[in-house]
Automatic annotation (TrEMBL):
Residue span of region Disordered: 559-581, 626-646
SMART domains the record matches: DEP (SM00049)
UniProt keyword Transmembrane helix present: yes
Species of the source: Pinctada imbricata
Classification via InterPro entries: DEP_dom, Mem_transp_PIN-like, mTOR-Rac_regulators, WH-like_DNA-bd_sf, WH_DNA-bd_sf
Protein name as catalogued: DEP domain-containing protein
Membrane topology value: Multi-pass membrane protein
Alphabetized PANTHER family for the sequence: DEP DOMAIN PROTEIN, INTEGRAL MEMBRANE PROTEIN GPR155
Composition skew (Low complexity), residue ranges: 631-644
One of the record's GO cellular component terms: membrane
Cellular localization per UniProt: Membrane
UniProt KW Transmembrane keyword: yes
Chief place of localization: membrane
Keywords: Membrane, Transmembrane, Transmembrane helix
Length: 888
């Protein structure tokens, strides 16, 4: 057994320093112990060694008996005179601020308005897994050096449950009542009042009867009754129950993860990843800043001024508690998001907790001790980013997206990032008091590139909003203004810094910060501005996701203009056919009926209102996509011209109130634009349906990928914001400060790797060719080929015959339906997940493993098949269909 002792501090300068405030010897074993037990519980559930009902029994024991006993004992023996109330206030303020931020953003962005999502997401990012996972980590770190810190966990835990969770529960109850009232529109006002009273009573009752809150209150009472000394017999009983908590809670945590991440792919990952990022990154940073500020105000810093703030940062990295998933399931609100976030967040927290705890052992005498290491990290990261960025540029050129919108602006972002990386590679890391042209060259490349990448991220967010809620024509008209803004602001700011700033590098660890406080203020301003622009743009885009704005009517002259514009724009299409005006007249007549009161003349003040009349899903992809996909080959030709009219309608300002001249200008811009981007490749390569004339798909914009990129960029900006504020308002340094400095460096110079992960693996040019070559290498063919029925074994034939005879018809009626993906309509199909769910539901399989095996048997027996015959049966959202007897 390892001896628990403190290790010497890392001290490059060789100065004598005091020992660190935490013990590190048992950290790695503690983290390994926790996650091995979690993995054991997960495997026990996955292999069906423990059923769901048995798992619920374990959960009941943990939450109702073991944890309350542990809480009661520790609250009874706690010395409240030694409690740092400033620290607890800092934790409360930090959690409240993050809760309010997440809830507010959710309320503003979510459409339709949903209080339940806001409350649940607020709980998700503030309720930590304090006891099952957090306590063992803290025990390994502080048991010898600061045993009093372990007691804080029993006071911190009720903060969420007593103060914040009731707010979330109230919002969940409000949404629940709104849903009930909406379903029963005949409810009277008196009934609504009763419902609100019932809601308040329900929330208060739930808080008071919560075992953690109840036993905390009883423990405080017991503290005064027993005077911090529990009777021996009662102490032994509580010890037995409390000692059973750690292993049982971790095992149950793993057990509760089974089946929580099914079907979470693609754009659906954005929300849970956002929540994970806020919980694992934003909450620790906010806690670090606020606790540090309050400790400074209290004047109780003592010999370790940063110990409490570092403890707060480590506490913030603890993952979300599993109980949040129970709340989501109880209220039937965002259960999939919460489940995925809980599972992934738990495992992602392990390296973050380890690194943070490791950095807490570092006593920083001078931050310059780490300057050479930071320069090396910046250099290595820049090299990787340069290679990644060049690769992405080649992919964009090969896929012919480089000239399209918004990929043109992505190229600009990559260029700025390359500029900063090349500047960092050229930087030698040596301090120079004499400013030469080499200094100006290196620093200009670094600063212009860094600020430019931030500005272009904001411009990309604005562009996505305009593309979806105005029109492509509007973006094309603003293109050069955006270019001037994206490159002009960084150049102007760099020039002003040269003129007004003071150069000094004596006390600065970051090689990119040559101008001290002046540069910190500049960076803070740019980061705040870009953060506001990105958040507001994404929120507005999301708000318009389902908004409906009436289309203003037009006079007959405008109708003729529209027809003329469409006919003029038709030369862009390969078919060269002209648009028939009758269809569009009919649409305008319908618009007149809906808005007969607004019969005003058209002006160009409100041009390009692409959102008008259609929701965001109808704009990209286009309004009649489903109708066109469902049309047969005989009608494809007649619908083609209508598709083109809709395409031009959405790309120009024809849904707005623009003049004839303005629409002609838009048609000219679009003609020029399409002449260079007409053959842009998309990822929709599945040849499943009858070939139809295709319109430009929403995949050409790759909106979901850009959103993922902007989300990651925003987290990078948050780190930079906190670092700038720390430089300006807190001159002290610590191991956590050095950790954040390294994290900011990796974010700054590692953007190329992020862009590579998002855009560098185009399915058409990278993934699919690799899969086909792999299949050719392993199977000798590039598609799945099934054996003949005559070659099947008796067991497979029997299973297939039994399924066809007794289950096929019922199964088809339950799960077969039309699905859409990448602008294609797949008729009469089902997903692998739906098939597995049905097999388990009817008892043909006991778990998902058996369901997959059963599905593979049906596929081998040619009862079902993948729609493109490219995949075997998997418990994934692949599309399958039943094989007709003629096909088999």
């Amino acid at each position: 057994m390892a001896v628990n002792s403190t290790i010497p501090a890392i001290n490059i300068s060789g100065n004598t320093v005091p020992p660190p405030s935490v013990s590190i010897d048992n950290l790695t074993p503690a983290i390994a112990q926790c996650f091995v037990i979690i993995l054991t519980g997960y495997l026990a559930g996955r292999l069906n060694l423990i059923s769901s009902s048995q798992g619920k029994g374990i959960g009941t024991f943990v939450s109702t008996f073991s944890l309350p006993a542990l809480l009661f004992k520790n609250m009874c023996i706690l010395n409240f005179g030694q409690v740092d109330w400033y620290f607890l206030a800092g934790i409360l303020i930090a959690k409240s601020a993050v809760f309010l931020f997440v809830a507010t953003v959710t309320l503003v962005a979510k459409r339709p308005l949903n209080f339940g999502y806001a409350g649940l997401f607020g709980i998700f990012v503030t309720q930590s897994n304090d006891f099952a996972l957090g306590y063992p980590i803290l025990q390994a770190l502080y048991e010898e050096s600061h045993p009093e810190y372990l007691k804080y966990i029993y006071l911190i835990a009720p903060i969420s449950i007593v103060f914040l969770n009731p707010i979330g529960f109230t919002m969940l109850e409000i949404q629940k009542r709104k849903t009930i009232i909406a379903e029963a529109s005949s409810s009277s006002e008196g009934q609504r009042s009763t419902s609100m009273l019932s809601m308040g009573f329900h929330v208060i009752k739930g808080v008071i009867t919560n075992p953690i809150v109840f036993m905390t209150l009883i423990g405080i009472v017991g503290n005064f009754i027993f005077k911090e000394n529990i009777p021996y017999i009662l102490s032994n009983i509580l010890d037995v129950l409390g000692n059973a908590f750690s292993a049982t809670a971790l095992f149950y945590l793993g057990l509760s993860m089974v089946g929580k991440i099914q079907g979470q792919i693609g754009i659906g990952l954005i929300v849970p990843l956002l929540l994970i990022g806020v919980k694992a990154l934003i909450l620790p940073l906010v806690t670090w800043e606020i606790v540090s500020a309050l400790e400074g105000l209290s004047g109780k810093n003592g010999t370790e001024p940063d110990a409490k703030s570092m403890f707060g940062f480590l506490y913030g990295t603890f993952p979300t508690a599993p109980s949040v998933f129970l709340y989501a399931s109880h209220y039937s609100t965002a259960a999939d998001f919460v489940a995925f976030g809980m599972v992934v967040g738990t495992f992602l927290s392990a390296p973050l907790m380890f690194v943070s705890a490791k950095m807490m052992t570092v006593v920083v005498v001078s931050e310059l001790d780490y300057k050479s290491l930071l320069v090396e990290t910046s250099f290595d990261t820049s090299i990787i980013s340069i290679v990644s960025s060049v690769w992405v540029i080649l992919i964009l050129i090969l896929s012919r997206r480089a000239r399209s919108i918004p990929h043109q602006f992505l190229i600009s972002l990559i260029f700025c990032h390359l500029l900063s990386c090349v500047g960092m590679v050229l930087y030698d890391g040596r301090e120079s008091h004499k400013k030469s042209w080499i200094h100006y060259l290196q620093f200009s490349m670094i600063l212009i590139g860094t600020l430019g990448a931030r500005c272009w991220s904001a411009i990309l967010a604005v562009t996505l909003y305009f593309l979806h809620c105005r029109s492509l024509c509007f973006v094309l008209r603003l293109k050069w203004i955006l270019y001037i803004t994206g490159f002009g602001i960084p150049v102007f700011c760099t020039g002003m810094l040269y003129l007004l700033g003071t150069h000094h590098m004596e006390d600065e660890i970051d090689p990119a910060f040559h101008y001290g406080t002046d540069q910190s203020l500049l960076s803070l301003f740019i980061l705040l501005l870009c953060t506001i622009v990105i958040i507001v743009s994404l929120i507005l885009k999301q708000r318009n996701h389902r908004d409906y704005v009436r289309v203003p009517t037009r006079n007959p002259t405008d109708e003729e203009d529209i027809e003329e514009t469409f006919s003029d724009s038709q030369s862009l299409q390969r078919s060269g056919r002209k648009v028939k005006g009758q269809r569009h007249r009919a649409k305008i007549s319908k618009c007149r009926e809906k808005d007969s009161k607004n019969n005003h003349a058209s002006t160009c003040v409100n041009c390009d209102q692409g959102c008008v009349g259609e929701s965001i899903e109808d704009i990209v992809p286009y309004p009649t996509e489903t109708e066109n996909l469902l049309s047969d080959t005989n009608s494809s030709r007649s619908s083609s011209s209508d598709d083109v009219s809709q395409t031009e309608n959405l790309e120009t300002c024809t849904y707005g109130t623009c003049s004839r001249e303005q629409r002609r200008k838009c048609a000219g811009l679009l003609r020029s634009y399409h002449s260079t981007t007409l053959s842009v490749q998309t990822e929709d390569t599945d040849e499943v349906m009858v070939q139809q004339p295709r319109r430009k798909s929403s995949d050409a914009y790759q909106t979901s990928r850009f959103i993922v990129l902007l989300v990651i960029q925003q987290f990078s900006m948050f780190v930079g914001l906190f670092l700038c504020m720390w430089r300006l308002f807190n001159k002290g340094v610590s191991g956590i400060y050095v950790e954040i400095q390294f994290l900011d460096t990796v974010f700054n110079y590692g953007q190329g790797f992020v862009i590579l992960a998002v855009f560098g693996f185009d399915t058409k040019f990278i993934v699919m060719p690799f899969i086909k070559r792999w299949r050719r290498f392993v199977y000798g063919v590039e598609v799945i080929h099934l054996p003949n029925k005559s070659d099947l074994d008796d067991e497979t034939i029997h299973v297939c015959d039994q399924f066809v005879k007794y289950h096929k018809e019922h199964c088809a009626s339950q799960i077969v339906k039309d699905h859409s993906y990448h602008l294609r309509e797949y008729k009469q199909v089902f997903t692998g997940i739906e098939m597995c769910d049905w097999l388990i539901e009817v008892g043909l399989a006991h778990d998902r493993g058996e369901a997959v095996a059963y599905g593979k048997t049906l596929l081998i027996g040619q009862i079902i098949c993948h729609v493109t015959k490219e995949h075997n049966f998997h418990d994934m959202p692949y599309f399958y269909k039943f094989v007709d007897s003629e096909e088999s």
